Amino acid sequence: MTKRFAVVLAAGQGTRMKSKLYKVMHPVMGKPMVGHVVDQALEAAIDNIVTVTGVGAETVQDYLGDKSKYVLQEQQLGTAHAVQQAEPIIGEEEGTTVVICGDTPLLTKETLEGLMNHHEDAGAKATVLTAHADEPFGYGRVIRMNDGSVSKIVEQKDASEEEQAVQEINTGTYCFDNKALFEALKKVDNDNAQGEFYLPDVMEILKNQQELISGYQLPVKEEALGVNDRVALAEANRLMKKRINEQHMRNGVTLVDPDQTYIENNVKIGQDTLIEPGVYLKGETVIGEDCFIGAHSIIENSTIHSNVKVTSSHIEEAVMENNSDIGPNSHLRPQSLIKEGAHIGNYVEIKKSTIGKRSKVGHLTYVGDATLGQNINLGCGTVFVNYDGKQKHHINVGDNSFIGCNTNLIAPVDVEANTYIAAGSTITDNVPAESLAIARARQVNKADYFKKMPHKD
């Protein structure tokens, strides 16, 4: 089987983005553009990926890791010059090489596979990925021979009136016979207005050598969108969002309003989960079956098991087990675990804590650095006072305990199983099992106090 390679062009600084962030690292639905490109190449079973980097090389390498090999284009001298930097790694190999821009995040593995299969089946030395454009102004036109092979690629400014009428355009993605590519790159010159070495010139060189140049047309033009500014970035996000949402809906997820639902690339969702408008699911989030995710909830890098109800709440790096619920307007901070059947009500914040099975944290409560057992009830306004100004301390609450409203638990402290704490208490000492703790001053009523106060008629 023919070996396959990819050269990912990721050296451009992207000045039109007007950003301190390296262009190909701008995210599209939660993943940097170059990450989309490389991941699709890997899924297309490409044997060896070489990413050409420039300014910000370390950022790209840190993100992609061992998914790719890397070469540095120290000077930005054009696309042909960029591809030529990969020669020490793959220049002597036999096989097929696809050249992809790192700012084309919508390209799919199906397209890359189709392009390479067409190229190899046609016996071409080079194949250009093309698309149909109803309004082709500004794009390079792909001019074909009567037999369907490509005669040339002509830029808008150089095209004749007849050529300008052609609606098949160059997308900037190419496929080559690897050996032929690197031989032709040596013959590319920079005799042009910009003084750069352009990759499309390879097609002309091979054509003059009587080699076959082919074209493979995309069924959907938008897939080849290149992102050069923030307007195009927003369009790429819109198109990727639509693609992701449609995939989830076809897999059995109900999105009440897909246009107002944001699901990043790596999120997984089970069947019969319903998601209301304004929801944003981020990172490596996993959501089980039969869940309800209410309007304007944000869930990031979290695991939500099945039959969970989330109402207008923010969950980050946390876990909610089966049949638990939260909200509205509550917040699970990192390292929070809500066990099966537990209830987290409204205006509750939980941080680095475990809430045991069937326990209830109803409303207006803060739980931090704590472990709660099963069947516990926390009254309204309970505060776990976990910070002494220098360190965080832990609190344990045993099974079947009842914590009255407006209780302060001062860490470190243990409240053992089957205990009661009277409302309004401030607990500073351990509470033994099966006891009642009362830590508040007795009520004193001052008779006729009103008459002693200065007041006006």
Describe the model.
By secondary structure, the protein is an alpha/beta fold. The protein has two domains: 4-224, Spore Coat Polysaccharide Biosynthesis Protein SpsA, Chain A, CATH 3.90.550.10; 230-437, Hexapeptide repeat proteins (UDP N-Acetylglucosamine Acyltransferase, domain 1, 3 Solenoid). 19% of the residues lie in helices and 30% in strands. The protein contains ten helices and 39 strands. The model has no long low-confidence stretch (mean pLDDT 95).
Taken from the alpha-carbon principal axes, the silhouette is elongated
**Biggest sheet, in brief?**
16 strands, parallel
For the record, the CATH class of the largest domain is Alpha Beta
Report the portion of residues in β strands: 25-35%
CATH architecture of the largest domain: Alpha-Beta Complex
Q: What is the assigned CATH homologous superfamily of the largest domain? A: Spore Coat Polysaccharide Biosynthesis Protein SpsA, Chain A
